[in-house]
C-alpha cells in the first residue's frame, strides 16, 4: 500500500462552484483510494521520494473524513516495515535511505492504525531501536537535529524527533532542555520562528517550533500575542493564508497557521468563515482532492492539510484533529 504524492487531476475555478459550498467527502475518499492504482503514470514514480509521507497524508485525511478503514490496514503496515532499515530508521520507500522525516511518518502511521506493537515484531530492538536512530541525530552542541547521517539541520527535524519520540514514549533518550534552547534561539523579534537562528519567520517553521514546545510542555516560552498578530496577518482578502509577507495564499497554510494559532489560543484572531470558503473553493468537485488554490491541480498534500484546517475550524462532519 503506497500512495502517489504528486499532482493529480485539476481543481475547479470559483466560477464552477455553487454559492453554497460543500465538502465532497465521498469524492475525496475515492480520490485518495485511487492514488495507489496509478502505477502506470509518470508522477507515481517521480514522487517515490514522498511515498511514505504520502501514505501518512492520505491516511490522516481519511481518518478526519470519518473513513479510517478506506485503506487496507495489513497492507499499510507491511509497506511501512518494507521501508525500515537495520538502524531502526525508515526511508521514503523500499531501498531509500533512512531519514528523520520518513521515520516520523512511519511512526505516525503505525500510531494511527493502532499498530505500534508491530515494532517489537520486526527485528531486534523494537521501539528502542527506532528511538535510538532518532536520538543519535541530535547535535550535542546546539540541541537541534539532523535529518540523516549527512548532517542537514532544520527545525522540521527537531519537531519530528519530539513528535515521534513522544509517540514512542522515549523522549528521555534526548537532551530536551538543549532542544528547547535551540528553539528559543530561532525566535525572531516579530514573534515568529525561522528554520535556524537568525532565519526569516515562516509559518511552516513556526508550526514546528510551537509544536515542539507544546510537546515539551513549554508553551510558556512563546510570546503569544506577538506571534498571534504575525500569524493573523497571513490572511488575505480572499480568506486564504500565506506563509510569510507578500506571498500568495496556499491551502497548506490552513494547517501551519491555524494549528499554530490553536496551540496559542488565538484561533479567533482570523476570519474562520472566509478561510472555510477558500478551502472549499480549492476542491475538485468532479474527481475529489484539494489544490493549493482554486484552479490548480489537486494533490494529497494539500488535500490533507485543507481537511485538517477545516477540522480545526470545527467544520461539520469532520473528526477533531490535534493541532500538535
Give structural notes.
The protein has about 325 residues and is mostly helical. It is built from 13 helices and three strands; from the N terminus they run βααααααααααααββα. The chain has helices at about 25-35, 40-45, 50-65, 75-80, 100-110, 125-135, 155-170, 175-185, 205-215, 225-230, 255-265, 270-280, 300-310, and strands at about 5-10, 290, 295-300. Strands 1-3-2 form a three-stranded antiparallel β-sheet, covered by helices on one side. α5 (about 100-110) runs parallel beside α7 (about 155-170) and α9 (about 205-215) packs parallel to α11. The longest helix is centred in the N-terminal third of the chain and has 14 residues, at about 50-65. It starts with 6 loop residues before the first strand and ends in a 12-residue tail after the last helix. The model is unreliable at about 5-10 and about 10-15 (pLDDT under 50).
Tell me, briefly, the overall form: globular
> Which structural class is indicated by helix and strand composition?
mainly alpha
Portion of residues within helices: 40-55%
Task: Give helix and strand order, one letter per element, not per position.
Answer: EHHHHHHHHHHHHEEH
- Unreliable stretches covering 5 or more consecutive residues: 6-10, 12-17
Number of strands: 3
Query: Nearest-angstrom radius of gyration?
Result: 19 Å
Task: Provide a count of the helices.
Answer: 13
Distance between the termini: 26 Å
Task: Output mean pLDDT.
Answer: 94
For the largest beta-sheet, the strand count, sense and barrel status come to: 3 strands, antiparallel
- Measured by DSSP, the beta-strand proportion falls in under 5%
- Major sheet: order of its strands? 1-3-2
